């Protein structure tokens, strides 16, 4: 406990033991030891007997004085470090040399740690001693750990790894949230709110102003993204940079070539729309990538691969298409649309680019999307619009037009073969659901069984779709509609994809009282989890069965409105920056 005192010429318990062993008059020896090792203040000696009269032990007195002096010394260390004296760090290094031998003493340790914390460059020998001792490493300040980490990537990786795992767990938990709503979904939190998350704040603190540590974290994120294809690592890449931006850490922001691009894109994500001015700014950054610096495209593509960025880009594309329709203009003539497609394509190709290390923008794959896929999608829109107008005509003017059930071949083909087209197709389905267009939804959902890389069965789309389907809750009383949603789409892959099983159960937990009872009975048998299923699926199924059992005992009144749908049944969709103003 008192290791290090003899090195400084201060007596410890062993010295007292030796003195008492070898002396003839113990009381005198104790007095002498107290005189030599007590507080060397002559005027104090005469005052100490007063404490004895009050029954205050000497230990208590010395401890209180010691605590007070320690606090004063720690304050003084901070003042010296923050001062402007040229030799301020020399003074601190001198103090470190004197105090470091006592670093294992609990009472002195805070002083040593305070000195270490305020030294911009701790002597390497001391750093190695701290790193080698688990207890010292654990209690030292993050400022000291940064100096250790920057030359020990493996140790830094061990510290960062649990945080990255926690981040992914939190994102996936949000996608499987028990809340099902179109108003509060995965994309609802603002960028600034997301950056207040525990993991982002901890990583930001661990990095501080250290460019080397920042680069290490980015390398970890790239490696994990390559290994897992998990797009949430792309979100963290952008959030981390913007968190440092919020704190004005110019030492890092000024050297990250993606900073201004990410800052501009962050503003678009906040508005859920890329306006013309920001579109031109973003284009300027992309066009400004110089020869020899193409590697920055890898990081830009990763930032554009962030689901929050993709969501903003596709919502902007949908809105842009509506404006073109209202103006009767061709998509290929819109420079804004072409830029949005260019960025979406760059983001969608992030994994391939980083994996191949070929840093080139995709060669206009969106050209065919514009000339072939979009016309096919627009023909679906026209079919729907024609049928709607037809239904409003007087009976004598109506033709025998029936709602089409098939889709254009080009629409289906590009949905399966092109990821940019597929992303747009999926968001068009969400748009249709938002408009509560049952006919169009029944026509489109079966086409999603086969999509590029099974994108329609990804967690992000299923999370959004299940939330949007709450708007059509009353339609689940129809066997035809249930058949399209479940038999025609969800149940085609639930046995091979557990995430689809989970999303189907999540939706039924909220809509079970709306589903046709005979169909519900079939669904519960079909969706019963196999033995090897994960716990979350089993828990959801148990909750569903308990709800159904409770419903049998006390059925809700026929006119009861589900609480999740309250306020979500206006006739027109509210106009916001992220909501199309006219139905496609």
UniProtKB/TrEMBL annotation:
<feature type="region of interest" description="Disordered">
    <location>
        <begin position="545"/>
        <end position="584"/>
    </location>
</feature>
<dbReference type="GO" id="GO:0032021">
    <property type="term" value="C:NELF complex"/>
</dbReference>
<dbReference type="GO" id="GO:0034244">
    <property type="term" value="P:negative regulation of transcription elongation by RNA polymerase II"/>
</dbReference>
<feature type="compositionally biased region" description="Low complexity">
    <location>
        <begin position="570"/>
        <end position="584"/>
    </location>
</feature>
<dbReference type="InterPro" id="IPR010405">
    <property type="entry name" value="COBRA1"/>
</dbReference>
<protein>
    <submittedName>
        <fullName>Negative elongation factor complex member B</fullName>
    </submittedName>
</protein>
<dbReference type="Pfam" id="PF06209">
    <property type="entry name" value="COBRA1"/>
</dbReference>
């Amino acid at each position: 406990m008192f290791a290090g005192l003899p090195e400084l010429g201060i007596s410890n318990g062993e010295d007292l033991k030796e003195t008492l062993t070898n002396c003839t008059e113990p009381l005198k020896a104790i007095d002498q030891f107290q005189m030599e090792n007590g507080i060397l203040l002559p005027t104090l000696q005469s005052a100490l007997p007063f404490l004895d009269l009050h029954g205050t032990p000497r230990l208590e007195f010395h401890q209180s004085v010691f605590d007070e002096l320690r606090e004063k010394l720690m304050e003084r260390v901070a003042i010296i470090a923050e001062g402007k004296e040229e030799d301020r760090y020399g003074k601190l290094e001198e103090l470190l040399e004197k105090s470091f031998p006592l670093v294992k003493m609990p009472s002195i340790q805070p002083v040593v740690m305070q000195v270490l914390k305020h030294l911009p460059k701790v002597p390497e020998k001391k750093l190695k001693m701290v790193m080698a001792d688990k207890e010292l490493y654990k209690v030292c300040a993050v400022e000291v750990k940064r100096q250790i980490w920057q030359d020990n990537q493996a140790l830094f990786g061990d510290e960062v790894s649990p945080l990255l795992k926690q981040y992914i767990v939190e994102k996936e938990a949000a996608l499987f949230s028990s809340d099902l709503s179109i108003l509060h979904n995965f994309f609802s939190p603002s960028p600034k709110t997301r950056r207040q998350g525990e993991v982002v704040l901890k990583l930001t603190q661990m990095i501080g102003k250290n460019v080397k540590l920042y680069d290490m974290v980015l390398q970890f994120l790239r490696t994990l993204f390559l290994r897992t294809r998990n797009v949430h690592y792309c979100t963290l890449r952008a959030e981390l940079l913007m968190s440092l931006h919020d704190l004005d850490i110019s030492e890092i922001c000024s050297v990250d070539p993606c900073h201004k691009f990410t800052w501009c894109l962050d503003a678009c994500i906040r508005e859920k729309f890329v306006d013309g001015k920001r579109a031109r700014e973003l284009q300027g950054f992309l066009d400004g990538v110089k020869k020899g610096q193409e590697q920055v495209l890898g990081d830009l593509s990763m930032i554009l691969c962030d689901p929050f960025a993709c969501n903003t880009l596709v919502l902007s594309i949908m809105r842009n298409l509506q404006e073109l329709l209202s103006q009767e203009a061709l998509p290929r003539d819109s420079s804004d649309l072409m830029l949005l497609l260019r960025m979406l394509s760059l983001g969608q190709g992030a994994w391939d680019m980083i994996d191949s290390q070929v840093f080139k923008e995709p060669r206009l794959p969106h050209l065919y999307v514009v000339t072939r896929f979009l016309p096919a999608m627009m023909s679906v829109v026209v079919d729907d619009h024609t049928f709607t107008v037809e239904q409003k005509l007087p009976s004598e003017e109506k033709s025998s037009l029936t709602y089409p059930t098939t889709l254009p071949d080009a629409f289906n083909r590009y949905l399966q073969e092109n990821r940019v087209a597929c992303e747009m197709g999926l968001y068009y389905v969400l748009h249709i659901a938002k408009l509560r267009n049952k006919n169009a939804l029944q026509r489109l959902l079966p086409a999603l069984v086969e999509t590029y890389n099974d994108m329609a069965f990804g967690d992000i789309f299923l999370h959004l779709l299940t939330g949007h389907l709450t708007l059509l809750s009353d339609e689940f009383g129809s066997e035809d509609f249930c058949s399209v949603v479940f038999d025609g789409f969800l149940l085609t892959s639930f046995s091979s994809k557990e995430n689809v099983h989970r999303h189907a159960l999540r939706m039924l937990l909220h809509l079970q009282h709306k589903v046709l009872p005979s169909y519900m009975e079939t669904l519960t048998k079909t969706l019963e989890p196999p033995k090897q299923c994960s716990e979350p699926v089993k828990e959801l199924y148990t909750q569903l069965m308990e709800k159904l059992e409770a419903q049998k005992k006390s059925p809700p009144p026929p006119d009861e409105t589900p609480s999740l749908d309250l306020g979500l049944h206006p006739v027109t969709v509210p106009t916001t920056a992220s909501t199309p103003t006219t139905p496609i």
